[in-house]
Write a structure and sequence with these properties.
The complex is a heterodimer of chains A (350) and B (316).
Chain A (H helix, E strand, L loop, with lengths): L1 H10 L5 E13 L4 E13 L3 E5 L6 H9 L7 E10 L2 E2 L5 H7 L4 E4 L3 H4 L6 H12 L4 H14 L16 H13 L5 E5 L7 H18 L2 E6 L2 H7 L2 E6 L2 E7 H6 L4 H8 L39 H5 L4 E3 L5 E3 L22
Parallel strand pairs in A: 3-8, 3-9, 6-7, 7-8
Antiparallel strand pairs in A: 1-2, 1-4, 4-5, 9-10, 10-12, 11-12
Chain B lengths: L1 H9 L1 H18 L15 H10 L6 H13 L13 H36 L4 H15 L2 H15 L12 H30 L2 H9 L3 H29 L3 H6 L5 H10 L3 H29 L1 H7 L9
The chains are: A alpha/beta (350), B mainly alpha (316).
């Protein structure tokens, strides 16, 4: 047990890739139809870095996250293809008793809704300590001590460890969830819209805290959100998802300042403009395609103002624009093609 | 929580008044009186009238009821009119028999119901689920005297392995306890299944899985811990009912418990014994239900919080 820990630590040295998702395809197979939730996505993440998975509801972000934990509800979820490697473990091939050693220790997850994520009949301290007890060979008392420390780390007074979830507010519950996730200082932390269920003032606090803890534990972070502001604040890299595909990925600068994909452009244009508050928002027309009947060509083509016939006919291939920047758009076959992002609304990343 | 309990216990008083009045009224309306079995052919009309007067049967029912209640408020349950023994002594001498049978049946019932219910919930929608719920449905639909008679017929009459009534041996517990346990397990299995199904799709189980908790512990610790609340109600009710004298089972298996005592008293029109027995059973029953309510608080901290003094409650 101890040796394994050391090899893991050695494996995840600074700059090493701790998470690699390759050609992941996840479908939900229902009686009447098949929901194509995630269609061939790949990305990787180095120790201590943060990637933001951005996209609308239904883009496949949460399914991707659950796949990394191998927690996709089955049935109906089926992982059709792909590999996921976390710190050298081939997650999708692990047996249950090996998987439970990786979950919570090498990779852990923060869920969207803190209101329902905690067991209502267990004291919060015990819920944190449970994670420590499972992965580290320590006594009950020692684990509880660690739980109290973790609580203080997330800004909750340690004496509240003996209280129950219903005695905490939403923001504090999310802090407890974060404390559980970080209790064994995992190499990879997946945060699935950690602030969506919280009100705005609490959101900023929780994000700041997560940022601090991420630096402190040198954890790689997969931040799932639909809030570009959160991405700008927390992430080094961005992957924009649409209908189960990553349509554009790159560093924060690549995607925010040198936007290539029409969908990413649409996301930025639909943000309110801070400098010109009178300016009208420019929503992306139409709706996300039905994931049970994805169009044969580019999934975004029906909503895209630049779309040509070629877009609807053939599925776009990933196009490397630079070492870090990749875009999934057929229109770039034409070397003169450029998107015209509304300059006034550009969010520059310092 | 203390005040709550006191309130519940105080409610016993009007309940006892109503129940005892109803029993006195019914016993008066029923044909025959306690003296009927004491009359012999040599008695003259005067003798019979004297005997009736001895039991106040010449006076209206309200008089007898008033006299009984006057004694009751002094804590005196009176004497059996047939045997002359004190009602309290009779009741307490029979009660351990009922208690033992109830506890054994409860253990059997829970031992069947919990695993079966969890099993059905984990395999919901499959043939196993249908099979389990099917058996439970049969258990609910079969009246206990029928199940009891079938078991007697099979294991006491044809295959003579268990005695048909109480004879002081452990073996005599088997048939009545299995009958009663089977009845209990039927509804408890269904309750366990639905409670588990409800809990199994909760988000906190996913949190536990993400922590690396094994599937076994997820079911036992996280899911069952939350599903226990409705299950406890069911089990508590079952225990209350069987303590309150499983009259039918005690009759079928000739079990000398409080159910049989009360039935005998009613058959002999022994009004004080019937009334006293029923009042004591009522107190027992209501106390059991109160204990079940208090057990909730033990299992569910959210309910406990409602009883907590205001200063301990922190604003959410």
């Amino acid at each position: 047990m101890g040796n394994e820990h050391i090899t893991n630590n050695g494996l995840a040295a600074e700059g090493d890739i701790v998470l690699e998702v390759k050609n992941l395809v996840v479908h939900y197979v229902l009686k009447k139809e098949t929901v194509e939730a995630v269609n061939d996505i790949s990305f990787s993440l180095k120790k201590g870095r943060a990637i933001g998975l951005v996209g609308e509801t239904g883009a496949g972000k949460t399914t991707t996250a659950l796949s990394i934990m191998n927690l996709v509800p089955d049935p109906p979820g089926v992982i059709k293809n792909g590999t996921i490697n976390v710190c050298g473990y081939d997650i999708l091939k692990l047996k249950h008793n090996e998987l439970k050693k990786v979950r919570g220790k090498d990779v852990s997850m923060i869920f969207q809704d803190p209101m329902t994520a905690l067991n209502p009949v267990m004291r919060v301290g015990d819920q944190i300590a449970e994670s420590v007890r499972l992965h580290e060979n320590v006594s009950k008392a020692k684990a509880y001590e660690r739980a109290v420390e973790m609580l203080e780390l997330v800004g909750i007074s340690g004496e509240r460890a003996s209280e129950f979830p219903h005695q905490f507010s939403g923001g504090m519950k999310q802090r407890v969830v974060i404390a559980i996730a970080l209790a064994c200082s995992p190499h990879v932390l997946i945060a699935d819209e950690p602030t969506t269920a919280l009100d705005v003032t609490i959101q900023a606090q929780v994000l700041d805290m997560m940022n601090d803890l991420k630096k402190k534990f040198n954890t790689a972070l997969v931040m799932i959100t639909h809030d570009l502001g959160v991405v700008a604040k927390m992430c080094d890299e961005v992957a924009v998802m649409y209908a189960g595909r990553i349509v554009e990925s790159g560093t924060l600068e690549d995607v925010f300042n040198d936007t290539m994909h029409p969908y990413t452009e649409g996301l930025f244009n639909s943000l309110p403009n801070l400098e010109n508050r009178e300016a009208e928002l420019e929503p992306i027309p139409g709706l996300m395609p039905d994931p049970t009947k994805l169009p044969p060509g580019c999934s975004f083509a029906p909503r895209c103002k630049y779309a040509t016939e070629a877009c609807s006919a053939k599925r776009p291939e990933p196009r490397k624009v630079s070492d870090t920047h990749t875009v999934l758009c057929t229109r770039y076959d034409d070397p003169s093609f450029r998107i015209k992002r509304r300059q006034s609304n550009e969010q520059h990343v310092s | 929580m203390f005040i709550y309990s006191i309130k519940r216990i105080l409610w016993l008083i009007p309940t006892i008044i109503c129940v005892s009045f109803i029993i006195y009224a019914l016993m008066d309306l029923a044909p025959g009186t306690v003296v009927d079995s004491m009359i012999t052919s040599e008695m003259t009309k005067e003798d019979i009238a004297e005997l009736r007067a001895q039991y106040d049967l010449d006076k209206p029912m309200v008089y007898r009821y008033g006299k009984y209640m006057l004694r009751l408020v002094q804590g005196d349950l009176g004497k059996s009119q047939v045997s002359g023994l004190s009602v309290w002594d009779l009741y307490t001498s029979r009660f351990p028999m009922t208690l033992r049978l109830a506890l054994v049946s409860l253990c059997i019932g829970v031992a069947i119901a919990l695993p079966l219910g969890i099993f059905a919930a984990l395999h919901s929608g499959t043939i196993w689920d249908n099979l389990t719920t099917g058996i439970a449905l049969i258990g609910i639909s079969m009246p206990s005297f029928w199940t009891g008679l079938l078991l007697l017929f099979a294991f006491s009459y044809h295959i003579k392995i268990f005695p048909s009534g109480y004879n002081g041996t452990l073996a005599s517990y088997v048939l009545p306890a299995v009958t009663s346990g089977f009845m209990m397990s039927a509804s408890t299995t269904r309750q366990t299944r639905s409670a588990m199904l409800e809990v199994l799709r909760q988000d906190y189980l996913r949190t536990a899985r993400a922590k690396g908790v094994s599937e076994r512990m997820i079911i036992i610790k996280h899911a069952l811990g939350n599903a226990l609340i409705p299950i406890i109600t069911q089990v508590g009710m079952m225990l209350a009912f069987s303590l309150a004298g499983s009259v039918v089972i005690e009759t079928v298996f000739m079990w000398p418990g409080i159910g049989q005592l009360t039935i005998e008293a009613i058959n002999r029109r022994d009004t004080p014994l019937a009334c006293g027995g029923i009042i004591l059973t009522l107190i027992l029953f209501i106390t059991m239900l109160l204990i079940v309510d208090l057990l909730y608080a033990l299992v569910d901290p959210r309910i406990r919080a409602q009883f907590a003094p205001a200063r301990r409650r922190k604003s959410a």
